[in-house]
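Shall we go through a protein fold together, starting from nothing but its sequence? Please make up or recall a protein chain and show it to me in full. Go ahead whenever you are ready, and we will take it from there.
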Amino acid sequence: MPTVQGFSTLRARSYVFRLPLFTRAVIVVMVAFWLAGLQSVWDLRQWGALIPDELGIATMYRVNTFPLIHLNFFHALFNILSLTPLLERFETEFGTLTSLALFFGPLTTIPALLYILIEKFILRGNTAVMGASIWVFLLLGVEAIRTYKTNPHLMIGTYHVPTWTTPLMVVLVVEALIPNTSFIGHLCGVATGYLFGLGYLKFLSPPEKALRWIEGRLNLLGRLPHYVSVDQKTYGRFGVLPTSNPTSSTTTPLGLIGSTQRLGP
């Protein structure tokens, strides 16, 4: 008779083996960057972190690299564990190519530039940030809007709390309990997730016709294991849920990058 521990292990292994391609790739890249950061010859974190004063034409790559780089093992571990179920759900819903285009495009660039705008030009600071938690809070924002459309309120005692506020509560809890996190960075992620969930960013998503052409031309579904095609999506694009008719989201300084480094966003 299988034990509870054995059953849980089997379920965990089954879940990991079923992860779609883009989610797997993101996890592998994060682990690879963490391993690369163990050496002392080249400062990977200084190279890839989002540092407001270091951002220019030649360093625009930072708006895409900073979510993949983490400060230490536990930072990477907690972010991977938090991100995996959310990113897996997103990829299953939107497809692998769309997820790739969005997360290494507007869904990373928009919160990064928003952070730069607030941190550098409004607060006049230069706090560097890194870590995938900005994606975590972005996806929590997307999920919160989806939930709000079907279940507008959460009952806490006698109070009706709007479900769209849940990522903001998580941001406050993380800020209170975990030191050296980027409150502004997390808020930028949530705000971008809200915009995406409400459909205001759907025009930035690649057209399905082009995606189908690429998939057919390169035979991606046949060549790549765990690839999610445009036509395999669970709910359709931009968070449209299925109907009942089957036909019709000043800190303590750290020493690795300098006194401006925060653990996050």
Remarks:
- The chain has a mean pLDDT of 87.
